[in-house]
C-alpha cells in the first residue's frame, strides 16, 4: 500500500496517514494481520519526521485499528473496532458531506451520488485485492 501526504493539506500529516490507513482497512486493501511499514520506513518514504508516523500509529492503535507486536512490527488488528453506543462520528461525517454538497451548489442527491461512487471504488479495490490473492 502506498501512502501520500500533502503538507499544505487541510488535515495535519498524521491525520492524513490515519485516514488513508483506516480507508484501506475499510476498503479491504489492508486485511487483518497485514504488516505495516515501520515508523522509520514510512517516514523515510513520505519524507516526514518519524514521530509524525508514530503519532498516527499510536492513535490508530488506541482506536483498535492496528496493533504493535514488540520485535515483530505493526499489523492490522484482527478485529474491526466497533463504534461506541451513541457515537456521533457517522452523523458528523454526514453533516460535513451534506454541507460540502450544499456549498458546491448541490444537495442531497449529489451527496448520495458521491457516496455511491466512493463505495464503488472501495468495493473495486477490495475485488482487485481478492483477484491478486487468487493469482498468487
How is this structure best described in words?
The chain has 136 residues and is mainly alpha-helical. It has two domains: 1-82, Orthogonal Bundle (Arc Repressor Mutant, subunit A); 85-136, no CATH class. The protein is built from five helices and three strands, in the order H-E-H-H-E-E-H-H. Strands 1-3-2 form a three-stranded antiparallel β-sheet. Helix 1 (13-27) packs across helix 3 (50-62), helix 1 crosses helix 5 (108-135) and helix 2 (39-46) crosses helix 3.
Q: What sort of overall outline do the alpha carbons produce when their principal axes are compared?
A: globular
Could you give me the name of the CATH homologous superfamily of the largest domain?
Answer: Winged helix-like DNA-binding domain superfamily/Winged helix DNA-binding domain
Largest beta-sheet characterization: 3 strands, antiparallel
Number of domains: 2
Q: Any idea of the CATH class of the largest domain?
A: Mainly Alpha
Tally the helices: what do you get? 5
**Percent in strands:** 5-15%
Indicate the radius of gyration in whole angstroms: 17 Å
- Write the CATH fold name of the largest domain: Arc Repressor Mutant, subunit A
Q: H/E order of the elements?
A: HEHHEEHH
End-to-end distance = 17 Å
CATH architecture of the largest domain: Orthogonal Bundle
- Low-pLDDT stretches are none
Average pLDDT, all residues: 86
Percent in helix: 55-70%
Strand order of the largest sheet: 1-3-2
Task: Quickly give the structural class.
Answer: mainly alpha
What's the total count of β strands?
3
Amino acid at each position: 500500500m502506498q501512502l501520500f501526504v500533502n503538507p499544505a493539506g487541510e488535515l495535519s500529516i498524521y491525520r492524513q496517514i490515519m485516514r488513508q490507513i483506516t480507508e484501506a482497512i475499510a476498503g479491504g486493501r489492508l486485511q487483518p494481520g497485514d504488516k505495516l511499514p515501520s515508523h522509520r520506513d514510512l517516514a523515510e518514504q513520505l519524507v516526514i519526521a518519524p514521530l509524525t508516523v508514530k503519532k498516527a500509529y499510536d492513535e490508530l492503535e488506541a482506536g483498535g485499528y492496528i496493533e504493535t507486536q514488540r520485535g515483530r512490527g505493526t499489523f492490522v488488528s484482527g478485529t474491526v473496532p466497533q463504534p461506541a453506543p451513541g457515537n456521533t462520528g457517522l452523523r458528523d461525517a454526514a453533516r460535513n458531506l451534506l454541507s460540502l454538497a450544499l456549498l458546491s451548489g448541490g444537495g442531497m442527491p449529489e451527496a448520495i451520488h458521491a457516496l455511491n461512487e466512493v463505495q464503488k471504488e472501495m468495493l473495486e479495490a477490495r475485488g482487485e485485492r481478492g483477484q491478486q490473492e487468487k493469482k498468487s
